[in-house]
Design a protein that fits this description.
- It is a single chain.
- The protein is of the alpha+beta class and about 425 residues long.
- Helices cover about 25% and strands about 25% of the residues.
- It has two domains: about 300 residues, Naphthalene 1,2-dioxygenase Alpha Subunit, Chain A, domain 1 (Alpha-Beta Complex), CATH 3.90.380.10; about 100 residues, Rieske [2Fe-2S] iron-sulphur domain (Rieske Iron-sulfur Protein, 3-layer Sandwich).
- The chain contains eleven helices and 19 strands.
- β14 and β15 form a beta hairpin.
- It is globular.
Length: about 425
């Protein structure tokens, strides 16, 4: 490990970024208009009935990250995306086409595949029904014991999918929400600089189970007000630029620059010192920066020279959440880029653990009798905007107290009719 003196010599000149460098036709939402709007009442973070509605509208009907195109290169390659009660397969067929299906046998709903891999056929573990890689039904065991049926109508149920710059997204339930390409369109040129397609899965990166409501984890990701106190290491390494904001397409983005002053932590200082080793992968003016983006309501995408990371918040219960962290490193990377990836993971894993500690403490206070949320800081503008979007979907969440048990869905439907 290099000494601090050597590290300081390795740090190149600071790269300044200003908004005029990003000469794009970007339409921003004025999030400051939402700053005076109240935060969601705390009962919404501890209500099972509301979670059932949220799961449909905020997860099943929105685009969810499933994986990277590098895992779908030849016939039979597949990715499984799991989300609470639902699961999807994204698979390459014999014809080279990519398709997505529900990850359940059409006979008795048994789960079919797990993880990432390659298959020549899909066979159910329960009754050995067999499916082709294009989802069509190939064979049924003991077919003469069934009433007459059409194989063509018994294939796997399709799921919508979209690939944007190598990132694979699925949508479990049909809806009219914007595609990922439409959501990122205003900053598409900026993303080009990162060559996201030129990446491959970094093994060994998974996630954590947090004892909190999914909205608390999303709220935490959406704001930087807590960074100096909650993430001292991240604060030593980076400073938040003035660029960014909320786009009208639903994407938020911000830029973090590496500080010139070396951190006193050796891992952090080493990262600062050798980040320029990946600079040839990206174009000015995004060198020596981290670009953070959010997709409503539960995802973050983080881009830097050596790695693409995706942060997902997925509910597993009213006060339990899976926080999934996927990393994709550059292909044919140098030893310095590999070291950057390893340092990046150590640093971000520490940040995630700190966030877990913070959000679980909030969840413990979510049911405090008579508590009302305080005013939001200007760095919490995105939380205010997100909460307004949630209230538009679930006007019942504007109530100071939770509806009587068993009436929430009906009351929400009535409020939507009069909204």
């Amino acid at each position: 490990m290099a000494s601090e003196k050597t590290i300081e010599k390795e740090i190149p000149e600071k790269v300044f970024i200003s908004r005029d460098k990003f000469d794009y036709d970007i339409r921003y939402l004025d999030t400051k208009l939402h700053r005076d709007d109240p935060a969601l009442p705390m009962w919404t973070y501890a209500n099972e009935e509301l979670l059932e509605l949220e799961y449909i509208e905020c997860f099943l009907k929105t685009w969810q990250f499933a994986g990277h195109i590098s895992d779908l290169q030849k016939p039979g390659d597949y990715i499984v995306f799991d989300m609470w009660r639902d699961s999807a397969i994204v698979m390459v067929g014999d014809d080279g086409k990519i398709r997505a299906f529900q990850n359940v046998c059409t006979h008795r709903a048994s789960r079919l595949l797990d993880g990432v891999g390659c298959k020549k056929l899909i066979q159910c573990h329960y009754h050995a029904w067999t499916f082709n890689m294009d989802g069509t039904l190939k064979g049924i065991t003991q077919p003469k014991e069934y009433p007459p049926c059409e194989k063509s109508e018994m294939g796997l149920n399709p799921v919508e999918f979209e690939i944007y710059k190598g990132l694979v997204f699925v949508k479990m339930v049909k809806s009219d929400c914007l595609t990922p390409a439409q959501q990122f369109a205003p900053i598409d040129d900026m993303l080009e600089a990162y060559n996201i397609e030129d990446a491959e899965r970094v093994e060994g990166f998974g996630g954590q189970d947090w004892k909190c409501n999914w909205k608390l984890a999303s709220d935490n990701y959406a704001e930087s007000y807590h960074v100096p106190t909650g993430h001292p290491g991240l604060n030593r390494m980076t400073e938040m630029g003035r660029e960014g904001g909320e786009l009208e397409t639903g994407v938020g983005f911000s830029i973090f620059r590496m500080r010139i002053r070396a951190s006193k932590n050796l891992d952090e200082a080493r990262y600062q010192a050798i980040i320029h080793a990946a600079d040839d992968r990206v174009e000015h003016p995004v060198k020596r920066t981290w670009l953070n983006m959010s997709m409503h309501f539960n995802m973050g995408i983080e881009l830097c020279g050596e790695v693409v990371s995706v942060f997902q918040v997925l509910p597993t219960g009213v006060d339990s959440t899976e926080v999934r962290y996927s990393m994709f490193g550059r292909k044919n990377r140098s030893k310095y880029e590999q070291e950057l990836i390893e340092l990046n993971y150590k640093i971000i894993n520490q940040v995630n653990s700190e966030d877990k500690f913070l959000t679980e403490r909030i969840q413990r206070g979510a049911k405090t009798q008579g508590y009302k949320p305080g005013a939001l800081h200007y760095q919490e503008d995105t939380i205010a905007l997100n909460h307004n979007n949630l209230r538009a979907l679930f006007p019942v969440a504007s109530l100071a107290e939770a509806p009587k048990w068993g009436t929430l869905a009906e009351q929400n439907e009535n409020m939507l009719k009069h909204q």
